[in-house]
Amino acid sequence: MTVTDPRQMNEAFARTFNDRNIGRLLAFYESDAVLRVDGSDKDLIGTDAIAGELQQLLQMPGTMTSRNNFCVVQGNLALLRADWELVDDKGTIIVSGSSAELVRRQSDGRWLYVIDHAMGAGLPRVR
Predict the structure, then answer these.
(1) 3-state secondary structure of 9
(2) What is d(CA 107, CA 104) in angstroms, rounded to the nearest whole number?
(3) How far apart are CA 92 and CA 103, in angstroms?
(4) Is the pTM of this model over 0.90?
């Protein structure tokens, strides 16, 4: 799936997750992209490192939905925030969060993740 409008990035990721195809999920990332999955300072850098985390994510049951909260575009960069959740067959939310991402337009017009923080927009306030 090719994303040519950054506002479609999160929905496309969720649809691809629901297909359970690791190769297509990784195709949303630049080769040296950064993924952070929680509130720690542990970054996964590059698609090889990201693949391991996405494989674990794909083991979770349920259907993912992801909706853009906002998309701010400046040239070839876009800042995104999405609200996402995994829901089981009975409609129960298994896990949910709010992500923060930076995507970049590629020379062929596709948008890819440069930085993906799966929980970044939902972390508690710093005191």
Answers:
(1) helix
(2) 10
(3) 31
(4) yes
